[in-house]
Design a protein that fits this description.
- The chain is an alpha+beta fold.
- Helices cover about 25% and strands about 40% of the residues.
- Strands 1-2-6-3-7 form a five-stranded antiparallel sheet.
- Helix 2 crosses helix 3.
Length: about 160
């Protein structure tokens, strides 16, 4: 009787460890499917910047980290501000929710045979879907024009940078 209880406690502990979401870090992505930022230089002063958060990361954090990477690139290239000419927010990875499966098996032993049928259901314990924000930015120098999609790179660095 003690063995089933110990097994149940071990299983519960293992599952609770799996349910802990991975913290989203402001760091370069190490591969095409990994978390973090990446960029593609389209032409001088124009980039496509992507930030992919960990599963369950808040959408605002993913959007802020994409803006922060855009600001860092702008300053590194000697510009003062950037305009977002296109933005795309999407789910990156498998859709959350239960998965169902059916299995059938059979066998024989010692003149006897049997057939088995099983139904399975699984759930994503990773904390939710991974989100990705992609921005296409155009950089500029001098005083920034007044527009809703124009950001001062130094101000973005000051306001979002300390939160990373």
């Amino acid at each position: 009787m003690i063995k089933p209880i110990a097994l149940a406690l071990f299983t519960a502990a293992a599952l609770s460890a799996c349910a802990t979401p991975i913290a989203t870090q402001f760091a370069p992505a190490t591969g095409s499917q990994s978390m973090g930022f990446s960029e593609y230089k389209i032409e001088p002063g124009r980039y496509r910047v992507t930030f992919k958060g960990s599963p369950g990361a808040p959408p605002n954090q993913v959007a802020d980290y994409a803006l922060l990477r855009a600001a860092d690139l702008t300053l590194a290239d000697g510009y003062d501000w950037f305009r977002i000419s296109d933005r795309n927010f999407q789910q990156a990875g498998p859709r959350p929710g239960p998965n169902f499966s059916v299995g059938v098996g059979g066998g024989s032993f010692g003149g006897r045979s049997g057939v088995g049928l099983s139904l399975g259901r699984s759930f994503d314990l990773g904390g939710g879907p991974a989100l990705a924000q992609t921005l296409e930015i155009v950089m500029g120098k001098g005083s920034a024009p007044k527009d809703a999609d124009i950001y001062d790179a130094r101000e973005i660095r000051k306001s979002i940078g300390p939160r990373t």
